[in-house]
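Subject: Origin recognition complex subunit 5

B.,
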Amino acid sequence: MDQVVQVISAKYPCRKALIQKLYQLFGDGDPFPPAVYLYGHISTGKSSILQAFLPLLNSSTTPTSWAILSAIECYTNKILFETILNRLTGHVPCAANGYASLASVDSMKDFVTQLARLPPSRSYIVVLEN
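Prediction pasted inline below.
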């Protein structure tokens, strides 16, 4: 724990309490909480700390995939669901795959079906901003 907290705290001074709390919630091998709400004033480092924390979490516990996305940019359910799936699986729409998403997801039912196909040996975190 100390190593992860120290590495991130060195980059983000005065945020050690937040970083320790994140590690308590996600870093000790226990099941993840169903939801965590990070809130605070604008431009206080919430997103930056999460972006630094999640890769270190992956190396210290069970394999973890995550998706960080802006809810404002995902203005339809289809875009939201497909973006989450693409990021959780590491799929990148590009010229080689015709800029196609991993799967066509038009509804919540399709999204849940696709989530059920993800490897159960991994843990998953979805971060929605804004």
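The chain is about 45% helix and 10% strand.

T.
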